[in-house]
Amino acid sequence: MRILVTGASGWIGSASVKELISAGHHVLGLARSDESAARIAGLGAEVVRGSLDDLASLRGAAALAEGVVHLGYKHDFSQMAAAAQTDRAAIDVFADALQGTGGPLLIASGTMGLAPGRVGTEQDMPNAGIHPRIANAAYTLGLADRGIRSMVVRFAPTVHGAGGDHGFVAVLARIAREKRISGYIDEGQNRWTAVNRLDAGKLVQLAIDKATPGSVLHAVAEEGVATRDIATALGQSLDVPVGSIPAERAQQHFDWLGMFFGIDAAASSARTRSLLGWEPTHGTLLEDIAAGHYPGN
């Protein structure tokens, strides 16, 4: 199958491209820069130039494909509404191209804030007020009524691994190194889900090959790692003290990450594993931290 992948040169996208190619798909990777194009070509995918802001380029790229893996997103917390609008416009382009074909359309979402205080499942639907992007996920699921094999993959907030993670844990490591303390908020008992990027890439491939229309899938290998344990592992790796940061000082200490690091965000992937036969096999979050993959540079 010819699969267009947005975000193909990124942290999750590059792992997904490799898995899709290994499974026999012909991957078209969307690239907005020469650097991205070179990275995509190096993965063995065909380069298609374009960007999420250029709907004409998206239409041209989608016309070449039989399915779409939409992982690209503008992660700008200062312009969340605008980013969600750009995302919705891209989804509409892909939906128009795939309508009535039965082809797959996979988009990315997250498990953060899914079911505070308990372990969230694929059946849980988050409050749309948490993030403007959530409405796009609900909209995508409804595209099954237009003859599209639509699906939403909710990724853990910590998609970790070796070789260039710039996400939440990398930010925590940088803050710990700069402030000479690896902190957690209050008691640090709130939990974050985690998944190795290589396992996440495998899940994307399995979803494209197996998921049914309107599926919600969880890219979660560990359903709940206590934030105190994350901070402790970072402290040991960076050789800095570990300590509690009071909730009222969280934003001052952690900057923008403070609004997220105190959330209890445990989630299960039991249904996803059953539906797809997905079994994570790569290192855990704490193992990757101990291996030195988060130097805090």
From TrEMBL:
<dbReference type="GO" id="GO:0005737">
    <property type="term" value="C:cytoplasm"/>
</dbReference>
<dbReference type="InterPro" id="IPR051783">
    <property type="entry name" value="NAD(P)-dependent_oxidoreduct"/>
</dbReference>
<dbReference type="Pfam" id="PF01370">
    <property type="entry name" value="Epimerase"/>
</dbReference>
<dbReference type="InterPro" id="IPR001509">
    <property type="entry name" value="Epimerase_deHydtase"/>
</dbReference>
<feature type="domain" description="NAD-dependent epimerase/dehydratase">
    <location>
        <begin position="3"/>
        <end position="87"/>
    </location>
</feature>
<protein>
    <submittedName>
        <fullName>Nucleoside-diphosphate-sugar epimerase</fullName>
    </submittedName>
</protein>
<dbReference type="GO" id="GO:0004029">
    <property type="term" value="F:aldehyde dehydrogenase (NAD+) activity"/>
</dbReference>
<dbReference type="InterPro" id="IPR036291">
    <property type="entry name" value="NAD(P)-bd_dom_sf"/>
</dbReference>
